[in-house]
Specification:
By secondary structure, the chain is mostly beta strands. Helix content is 3%, strand content 56%. The protein contains one helix and ten strands. The chain has one helix spanning 18-22; strands at residues 24-34, 39-51, 57-68, 74-87, 93-97, 103-108, 115-120, 123-133, 136-144, 149-158. The protein has a ten-stranded antiparallel beta sheet. It is globular, with a radius of gyration of 16 Å. The two termini are 17 Å apart.
Length: 173
């Protein structure tokens, strides 16, 4: 995946109704790199963005992670995670929360909303969101600190482009 690093991302992007754009099912391919050990892994699966009563979205990922364990033996197994996306001050942005209600970060594709930082003691998580096409987007987590030195790059592709809402809600390539 070639998702631009935060300093390579232009301060522009599509102004889109993010909720309408994301709604539906996407394939996800993620590369995982632990820079401190050189260990690499992958996650492949499906992401589903479904409506919530407050006008947001539930974000649910299910798939398979492949990684080398501490002793170097390969590991492969099921993995999942969930977030809640809540409306923000503009339709082009959603606020991301953990399922227990703790705030995580802000998500968007345009301008400064395409990047955010989350501090999770003792490490810093920097995210950059990028539109790669009308039915493809991605994000890059650069995690640094005393406990972690990781790079996670995810590419999402809409599973059924014809099922997407109004084409006006989809960013141009």
């Amino acid at each position: 995946m070639n998702i631009p690093a935060p300093d390579e991302t232009p301060d522009s992007g599509p102004d889109v109704d993010l909720r309408a754009y994301l709604r539906g099912s996407w394939s996800v391919d993620r590369t995982l790199l632990d820079r401190s050990s050189g260990t690499r892994g992958t996650f492949t699966g499906v992401v589903r963005f479904t409506d919530t009563p407050d006008g947001g979205l539930n974000w649910r990922e299910d798939g398979t992670v492949r990684w080398s364990s501490g002793n170097g033996a390969p590991f492969s197994g099921p993995a999942s995670r969930e977030y809640v996306l809540r409306p923000a001050d503009t339709p082009a942005v959603l606020d991301v929360y953990f399922p227990d209600g703790r705030p995580f970060h802000r998500m968007g594709f345009a301008g400064q909303s395409s990047q955010d930082v989350h501090w999770c003691a003792p490490d810093t998580y920097r995210v950059t969101y990028t539109v790669l096409g009308p039915d493809e987007c991605g994000y890059r987590w650069d995690v640094t600190g005393p406990a972690k030195d990781q790079l996670l790059e995810s590419s999402l592709r809409r599973l059924d482009p014809a099922a997407a809402a109004d084409p006006a809600t989809r960013p141009a390539e």
